[in-house]
TrEMBL record:
<keyword id="KW-1133">Transmembrane helix</keyword>
<feature type="transmembrane region" description="Helical">
    <location>
        <begin position="187"/>
        <end position="206"/>
    </location>
</feature>
<protein>
    <submittedName>
        <fullName>Bacteriophage N4 adsorption protein B</fullName>
    </submittedName>
</protein>
<keyword id="KW-0472">Membrane</keyword>
<dbReference type="InterPro" id="IPR001173">
    <property type="entry name" value="Glyco_trans_2-like"/>
</dbReference>
<dbReference type="InterPro" id="IPR029044">
    <property type="entry name" value="Nucleotide-diphossugar_trans"/>
</dbReference>
<keyword id="KW-0812">Transmembrane</keyword>
<feature type="transmembrane region" description="Helical">
    <location>
        <begin position="244"/>
        <end position="265"/>
    </location>
</feature>
<dbReference type="Pfam" id="PF13632">
    <property type="entry name" value="Glyco_trans_2_3"/>
</dbReference>
<feature type="domain" description="Glycosyltransferase 2-like">
    <location>
        <begin position="3"/>
        <end position="204"/>
    </location>
</feature>
<feature type="transmembrane region" description="Helical">
    <location>
        <begin position="212"/>
        <end position="232"/>
    </location>
</feature>
């Protein structure tokens, strides 16, 4: 709150990073979120703010100035948020930008150097890992993650394309294109992953068995194709290295290296989410008619027990909000 209060007189939208809580490394579904948010809020959004001056709200960790809230209320006849949007947080960032209001993405660390030297993980960055940020658990099952991400895709890609037209700013249009290309890239990435796995299996088969059948190579006699594939391979390695760096900065080297393995699982989730989003839009005809699909969240426990799973009445009794006589 002190950080927001310091900035709110000069900025109309203030967003702080989101860094999901870790689970056990075997929880691949939930852990894909730490990979994506580490890169998104460590690199993508800061670059977006610096080049375009536009910051998408994350739905949590966002502060609005009185001027911004008043303008949004005037737009919606007393309702600040677009109730038909499945990603009203993303929508608000563009609405405020169109009104000429200032937006900022704040990465502000609070570091106790003496304490940090004892607790820091290997290659974990002191400033990054002590950022003022939002911590929360994200979906831990495949189906829940697919449902949540399909809602994001419908809101950002399909509803966003209908609501927010291309602008006169080439820089902002570039980031709009990056937001919307997921409708295609999620399909292409998954298919490319399948092709790569098939080629690796064929290579292993031909290398390990002396009498193996040698399949006709798709690369023979195509110098331009080989050049293109090596260029693409180099770009892929560059992207993987960037992800490892940004995940390591907050979570340490172990999670940074595991993020490489989680790429495949994340691609599958994004592919299924994209397929589900496309199916829902086609079924309803209009992306703005798709119903909200609420995500169930897990909540952290301060004491390590299952406080979040206990009955509400038990929690209220323990904190003396109600008495035993009240419940009778």
């Amino acid at each position: 709150m002190r950080l927001f209060n310091y900035l709110v007189e000069r900025k109309d939208l203030i967003q702080i990073p989101v860094y999901p809580f870790e689970r056990e490394w075997t929880h691949f579904t939930s852990m894909t979120y730490i990979d994506e948010f580490s890169e998104l809020h460590g690199k993508d959004v800061p670059v977006r703010e610096a080049l375009a001056g536009q910051v998408p709200s994350a739905g949590v960790g966002t502060c609005f100035s009185r001027r911004a809230v008043t303008a949004l209320l005037a737009d919606g006849d007393g309702i600040a948020f677009d109730v038909q949007s499945l990603t009203e947080d993303y929508d608000i960032g563009f609405r405020l930008k169109e009104k000429g209001m200032t937006e900022i993405f704040v990465r502000f660390p609070v570091v106790d150097e003496a304490k940090e030297r004892e607790q820091r993980k290997f290659l974990q960055h002191a400033r990054t890992s002590n950022m003022i940020c939002v911590r929360e658990y994200f979906p831990d099952t495949f189906s829940t993650a697919v449902r949540q991400k399909s809602r994001w895709i419908i809101g950002i890609v399909f509803q966003g394309f209908k609501t927010h037209k291309w602008t006169s700013s080439l820089t902002l249009n570039y980031f709009l294109w990056r937001d919307r290309k997921g409708a295609i890239s999620n399909f292409v990435s998954f298919l490319a992953m399948l092709v790569m796995i098939q080629l690796l299996l064929l290579l292993a088969y031909e290398s390990l068995w002396p009498d193996a059948w040698h399949f006709l190579s798709i690369f023979s006699g195509s110098a331009w194709l080989m050049t293109l594939l090596w260029l693409n391979f180099g770009l892929m390695i560059n992207r993987i290295v960037q992800r490892v760096i940004f995940v390591t900065g907050y979570y340490g080297l172990t999670q940074g290296l595991l993020s490489v393995l989680r790429l495949f699982w994340g691609n599958l989730i994004n592919f299924m989410a994209n397929w589900r989003a496309l199916k829902q839009v086609l079924q309803h005809g209009d992306p703005r008619r798709v119903a909200w699909d609420k995500t169930t969240h897990d909540f952290p426990s301060v004491t390590g027990d299952t406080r979040s799973l206990r009955p509400l009445g038990q929690i209220l009794l323990e904190n003396q909000v109600i008495t035993g006589r009240t419940t009778r």
